[in-house]
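Hi support team,

I submitted a single chain yesterday and got back a structure, but I'm not sure I'm reading the token output correctly. Could someone confirm the output below corresponds to the sequence I sent? I've pasted both exactly as they appear in my results page.

Thanks,
R.
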Amino acid sequence: MKVLILAAGLGKRMKSKYPKVVHKILGKPMINWVIDLGKRFGEVGVVVGHKAEIVKGYLPMDVRTYLQEHQLGTGHAVMCAREFIDENDDVLILYGDVPLLKSETIEKLNEIHKSRNADVTVLSFIADDPTGYGRIIRQDGRIRIVEHKDASESEKEIKEVNSGIYIFKGNFLLANLDRLNNNNAQGEYYLTDLVGLAQNAEALILDDPIQVSGVNDRIQLAQLESIAKERILNELMLSGVTIVDPQSTFISPDVVIGMDTVVHPFTIIEGKTTIGEDCEIGPYTRIIDSEIGNKVKVMRSELEGVKIENNVSVGPFARLREGTVLKENVKIGNFVETKKSIIGKNSKAQHLTYLGDATVGEDVNVGAGTITCNYDGYKKYPTHIKDKAFIGSNSSLVAPVTIGSGAIVGAGSVITEDVPDDSLALGRARQTIKEGWAKQKREAMENADNKK
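Hi R., thanks for writing in. Yes, this is the structure output for that exact sequence:
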């Protein structure tokens, strides 16, 4: 099956400088929800139009695109992708702003299409208020669709309406596209007209119309996000994940979470994130595109592009940036930031530390206030801290520099040269004491005040 997604619309009611289909639901652009669904059934093509280059920037490399320069209706959009259509293959038509459609629904639609050898099979639903929808007209064993603006008063009473989602035979589509015309109230080429041309058209009535709800404005965007959020959280809870407060928890559709993990309130988990079993995530935590093992605790922290092994604790108030790898039993504490750094097993950075472009060995203790000075204003440089080293509090490690295995860096040191194994490194001025100096200073200040 070929899957053609129509995503060329203006989206005026979004009141945005960005195309409608790139607006996000739970951190994922709507167009990508639809592409991921389409890929389950076959090769995907997308018809782009308004601000096409922006839309293309969100598409996977294996998705073909077709330009509709002027938005002249759904039929015209399919005409613009004529070369995508194969006469020997079925074509599923989807929309870039309809993100909640389920794969089971497409499977049922395809089953009817195949079993009845239909030229076209339409997904329809019963609308309490059908205003604005094309009506499904069933007459003399045939099916046709009449758009609302072209419908008679009696046809407007019909409540079975068109979702806009179809499966066409490729040969039927190619043979009939040129028969479409724009002699209608909107002056557009309607894909719906092809249904009336089919000798064998079928329709599946969907019992869950919310699946085919589109987004026209930001109110509808928020409404669909709320529905999507509830569905995702329900699926996770039914699979063995504890969501303490579903109202304040936001989890993207591509996130995978293991059994007996607990997600606390005010937590956001986005992108291609995987979290293992028996973890404790949150509260007040955001995780993006990260891989987290089993029995990991992350509290009041931000993680993006991070890989964490088992039995690690993070936070509170930590920021782990892209390229961070935490090995087993690592402890990252409050107000610690990492970037492109690997922290070895059993190592700790508990307080007020920055580790950038660093490789930290096993059983290392990084004291409070330690900084890897990895940037000289032009280039980034690496820091290597070997196994069982001890970095005293308030130390600055000026990269490139290596701290040897078992070495100790004295608190308050500025280290600019490599430290050999098992050595003590001190990089601070010798302490000087001037007895009575403070008392003399106070007396001098008091005398000056008295003379005024």
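A quick pointer for reading it: The chain has two domains: 2-212, 233-425. Let us know if anything else looks off.

Best,
Support desk
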